[in-house]
Backbone:
């Protein structure tokens, strides 16, 4: 079998990482001085890295994160109530694996969406399926799903997602049907999957936002009991960034 035939066979067997590494070995004569075991180890390492990168790409694409954020780029200089120890604990994603929830609250512009996407990115990097969606958009998707018969498929997708990020909680008042739909989503995930919520509303106002006492009690009990909470403060990060940009221009 020729080298080209070997490469074609590896690609046909979906061993692209090994094929690419072997192709490089063909082009680099110095690798021929390595032992068979050493060369095989290099090929296997490349295949593992290739598969991990492919999986990460798939997870990030499916997550639909709103902004490209990552934990390593968090700005701790701006005082907004973030502690490195807390973020290190959240970055481990043990809370996701344990099915716990996280609530991030604070004024507009303080970085809630950015932080939620950074944690979503971190979850993807650890092989955990993630989905970012604004709550108003999710409620609209659920409304449409009732009408076109896709409700079971959508609910199954939400249940399988290990980390569901619900951004912009409390932006608009919700209807009775939306309350019921929200209850179904939260109930399905309760104790099994993690939900991350960002909101300008402090958690003590969430009951009034949901509106109906019985459903509000049920939803909040499932969301907040034993949840992790980040309460951010300080000036708008967007305003500070704009001020810095203006100063740079001047």
Residues:
């Amino acid at each position: 079998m020729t080298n080209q035939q070997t490469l074609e066979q590896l690609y046909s067997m979906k061993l692209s990482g090994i094929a690419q590494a072997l192709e490089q070995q063909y082009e680099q004569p110095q690798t021929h001085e390595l032992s068979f075991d050493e060369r095989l180890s290099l090929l296997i390492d490349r295949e593992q890295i290739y598969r991990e990168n492919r999986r990460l790409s798939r997870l990030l694409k499916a997550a639909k994160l709103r902004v490209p954020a990552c934990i390593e780029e968090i700005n701790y200089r701006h005082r907004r109530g973030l502690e490195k120890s807390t973020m290190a604990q959240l970055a481990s994603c043990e809370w996701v694996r344990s099915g716990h929830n996280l609530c991030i609250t604070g004024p507009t512009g303080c970085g809630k969406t950015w932080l939620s996407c950074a944690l979503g990115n971190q979850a993807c990097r650890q092989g955990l399926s993630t989905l970012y969606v604004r709550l108003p958009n999710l409620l609209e998707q659920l409304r449409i799903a009732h009408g076109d018969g896709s409700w079971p498929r959508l609910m199954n997708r939400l249940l399988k997602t290990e980390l569901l990020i619900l951004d912009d909680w409390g932006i608009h008042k919700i209807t009775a049907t939306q309350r019921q739909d929200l209850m179904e989503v939260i109930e399905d995930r309760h104790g099994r999957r993690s939900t991350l919520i960002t909101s300008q509303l402090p958690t003590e106002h969430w009951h009034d936002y949901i509106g109906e006492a019985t459903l509000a009690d049920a939803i909040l009990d499932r969301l907040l009991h034993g949840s992790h909470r980040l309460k951010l403060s300080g000036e708008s990060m967007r305003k500070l960034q704009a001020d810095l940009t203006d100063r740079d221009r001047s």
About this structure: The domain at 64-241 is CATH 3.40.50.300 (Rossmann fold). The mean pLDDT is 86. Residues 76 and 83 are 8 Å apart (CA to CA). The longest strand covers residues 163-169.
